[in-house]
Request: fold
Amino acid sequence: MNNGLIDCFIDKHSKKRLITEAFLELFTKEYIFLVEIAKVTKIGSRTLMTYLAEKGVYPVDHNDNKKLRLKLYEREKLKDISIFKGIV
Reply:
């Protein structure tokens, strides 16, 4: 939410930021966490990061000063990579 990857709205009463199911669904259609890919492929996260970097594919926070805790990739950039067929 802080980096604008997922939409949210502010509750008028509590002033908390809230995410709707629709916002969450849009987010999961567009992005995938590296850990999810690692679990399905049974390939370590570091190995996957290196593999993807060699193909010119980087996490969404690659050029940001403030990094995300978990590595997040755009599904669109992964769809043509053969080892990810059926995952993304």
